[in-house]
Write a structure and sequence with these properties.
The structure is a single chain. With 667 residues, the protein is mainly β. Helices cover 4% and strands 56% of the residues. It is built from 4 helices and 31 strands. It has helices at residues 2-7, 48-52, 386-393, 436-440; strands at 26-29, 58-61, 69-72, 80-84, 87-88, 109-116, 130-136, 146-155, 160-170, 174-185, 201-213, 218-232, 240-257, 260-276, 286-306, 313-334, 341-363, 368-383, 402-418, 421-432, 444-446, 451-454, 462-475, 480-499, 512-534, 539-551, 565-574, 577-586, 604-618, 626-636, 658-666. It has a 22-stranded antiparallel beta barrel. It has a 5-stranded mixed beta sheet with strand order 1-6-7-4-5, with no helix packed on it. A hairpin with a 4-residue loop joins strand 23 (462-475) and strand 24 (480-499). The longest helix has 8 residues, at 386-393. It is globular and about 75 Å long. The chain binds copper (II) ion (CU). Residues 93, 95, 97, 241, 273, 275 line the site of copper (II) ion. The site of copper (II) ion has 6 residues, from strand 14.
């Protein structure tokens, strides 16, 4: 009902048809234009992190209010690929305070797509758990001539403010999307009313996407994003961030043949991350810890359909990519009364990576399809900082200053549909090279288990074999449907830190030193059940429950694996109004990884309420006065529960009761 109301507004300009070749497992829509699909109840004003939370396979590790780390299939950054419109970008913090999703703003994006497991998007490398691609907002040619969006939001808990303005212009020759966004918050109150110190942040973002049609078949496109977060508190860590800045830019050329498309994009991005502990009281030794990440690269993607008149059709994509990334981080400690101590924590590692990916979506007949994908990549790494290299060589006398690795992935899945039901089974194998932290990190303190970590340049590649299956059943004219989704990842040479008691810690208060090792094997498996029920024309119910398991080579639980979790929603829609009650929670974390320093997180449940109302003001005489308004309001954590989830770093408590109100206007 609501969908049809909303669809009468602006839909055509942003066609969000999932790319056939990419076989997206899940998409969350961010802009207000892609209506009727999976999206946050806060609309466009929601943060990227809140949008990511809408995806079925995604959890978030939270170290504060800002820059949450996405986890897919219970695997963190090291086992995922995150790209922005296919561009590689790497974070610059040795403590993972800045996942790359923190360098864009919701208003920059059209959607976020997730490919679960080893069947990654063509540009993805090292994606064992999955790949996320953040799709930038592009109005395209010959859409609406002009579109302006203004949005503002306020959340009472922590006085969060969000302001955004973006404009889009579209013609036959050219198009432009541009916007400016600001969001900032003070420290928030946890359940019960206590203030959580160092949970503030502020962020400013500017972006532009432009397209120019050169001929009927040739197009140039360009992107520039500037994003700067300042004064970001990390209550779960010992340090905050004074500046985290991303500059992201690309230029691409698209050519259309008959029945085929070819895109070549060149890009460059630079991330600066500066940690700061000067606002913290009682710091034993002050430290300066900056980090830098530079990436430049290109990809060239050819997509075509083959099969001609025959029943079996192939949608084929071939992608070549090449990138060069440099990561450098250092640390200066200022012990009171003594000379400063200097240390290189990431030894200016240059990684040159190149790969070739092929995917083929085969539609066999109306009921059956097959998807095949594979990628082979080769990389060369060089340690360019002499001081960092010689520091690590003390522990690994046989190490050299240059390494190379070959990684690959291959996946196949088969889909079959009958009546109103769909079945899919798939399998894959893939490997990843150790990250710069895992191979060359130097005395990186991990506040999760209180150990200093040293990288191991002799690590082998980690690999995994994946099996997955899902089936969806619909009954009562598709008014009720159930989706069961299961996957298992069998790892070989799983990379994790293990205690080395011959070494002593450098950080004050650390318990010892861990060195990254390959475990012979490990397992991660996930099972989820989702149900949707259209009770009446106006009332819909949905529910989801999921269960996950992670085990190391000695059958100990792996860290940061979700306990049993659930979420259920009841939604009532009437004309332009949509209201929703949501209950979500986790069971007791009985399977926590004591061996890896994890503590047990107790069960919790919270209730959220939300409502959205849309209306418009026209003046038929002057078509220029045509305003579309959406008001969204809600209460999160209605009963002000004091709780933290298993993925809250060091069990920092979540927000207490929070009332929000936001307004979007389209003119
Ligand atoms: Cu940091």
């Amino acid at each position: 009902m609501l969908e049809t109301v909303l669809l009468t507004t602006v839909l055509m300009s942003y066609t969000v048809v999932p790319d056939k070749v990419q076989n997206l497992d899940e998409v969350v829509i961010i802009s207000d234009e892609g209506r009727g699909r999976k999206r946050s109840v806060k609309g466009q004003v929601a943060s990227i992190d809140e949008h990511l939370g809408e995806l079925r396979n995604v959890n978030l590790v939270r170290r504060g209010s800002y820059a949450w780390e996405p986890v897919v299939n219970n695997m963190q950054t090291e086992r995922l690929s995150t790209t922005i419109d296919g561009m590689k970008i790497f974070y610059a913090c040795t403590d993972k305070m800045d996942p790359v999703t923190s360098y864009v703003e919701s208003g920059n994006l059209q959607s976020i797509s997730l490919n679960s497991g080893l069947d990654g998007n063509p540009q993805a490398t090292g994606n064992i758990g999955g790949s996320l691609d953040l799709k930038l907002r592009k109005i395209g040619f010959e859409a609406y001539p002009r579109q302006i969006n203004l949005s503002a939001g306020h959340e009472w808990n922590g006085h969060l403010q969000v302001y955004g303005a973006d404009a889009a212009f579209s013609g036959y020759r050219a198009y432009l999307n541009t916007g400016v966004f600001y969001r900032a918050a003070d420290c928030y109150q946890v359940g019960g009313g206590q203030l959580l110190n160092f949970s503030q942040f502020s962020k400013f973002n500017l972006f532009a996407n432009a397209g120019l049609r050169l001929t009927d078949t040739d197009v140039l496109e360009s992107t520039v994003i500037f994003d700067r977060a300042t004064d970001v508190g990390y209550p779960a860590l010992n340090m905050d961030v004074s500046k985290a800045q991303g500059f992201i830019t690309s230029l691409s050329y698209k050519h259309r043949f008959s029945g085929a498309g070819w895109e070549t994009k060149a890009y460059y991005n630079h991330i600066i991350h500066i940690m700061d502990d000067t606002t913290r009281p009682d710091v034993a030794i002050h430290m300066d810890m900056p980090g830098d990440s530079w990436t430049t690269g290109l990809y060239s993607l050819l997509t075509t359909s083959l099969g001609g008149e025959s029943r079996v059709q192939h949608d084929v994509a071939v992608n070549y990519d090449l990138y060069y990334n440099r990561l450098f981080a250092d640390m200066t400690m200022y012990p009171g009364g003594a000379a400063p101590m200097y240390m290189v924590t990431w030894p200016d590692v240059g990684t040159l990576n190149t790969g070739l990916a092929v995917t083929d979506n085969v539609s066999i007949d109306e009921r059956q399809s097959l998807r095949l994908s594979g990628k082979l990549a080769w990389q060369q790494q060089r340690l360019n900082n002499e001081e960092g290299y010689s520091g690590q060589k003390v522990f690994f006398p046989l190490m050299t200053d240059s390494y190379h690795q070959t990684t690959g992935r291959i996946a196949a899945s088969y889909q079959f549909s009958i009546f109103n039901s769909q079945f899919s089974i798939g399998s894959g194998w893939g490997s990843r090279a150790p990250t710069v932290t895992e191979a060359y990190g130097y005395y990186l303190n991990n506040t999760f288990d209180q150990y200093d970590y040293i990288g191991n340049p002799h690590l082998k590649n980690e690999s995994a074999f994946e099996l997955n299956a899902n089936s969806q059943f619909s009954i009562f004219n598709s008014q009720f449907s159930i989706l069961i989704d299961a996957n298992v990842f069998l790892f070989k040479d799983y990379i994790i830190g293990r205690l080395d008691d011959r070494l002593s810690a450098m950080t004050v208060g650390a318990e010892g030193v861990k060195v990254y090792r390959n475990l012979d094997h490990a397992t991660i498996s996930n099972l989820s059940l989702t149900a949707d029920w259209q009770l009446t024309e106006r009332l819909a119910w949905s529910g989801k429950v999921s269960y996950s398991l992670g085990r190391d080579d000695e059958d100990n639980p792996l860290p940061l694996i979700s306990p049993v979790s659930w979420r259920t929603e009841l939604e009532y829609s009437y004309r332009h109004l949509q209201t929703r009650v949501e209950v979500k929670g986790n069971a007791d974390q009985t399977d926590y990884a004591a061996r890896y320093g994890e503590t047990k997180t107790p069960a919790w449940n919270i209730v959220n309420l939300s409502a959205a109302y849309q209306f418009s003001i026209h003046n038929s005489q002057f078509s220029i006065f045509n305003f579309q308004f959406i008001i969204r309001a809600g209460v999160e954590n209605l009963f002000d529960k004091h709780y933290s989830s298993y993925s809250d770093w060091n069990d920092i408590p979540q927000k207490g009761r929070n009332i929000y109100l936001n307004l979007s206007v389209e003119l």
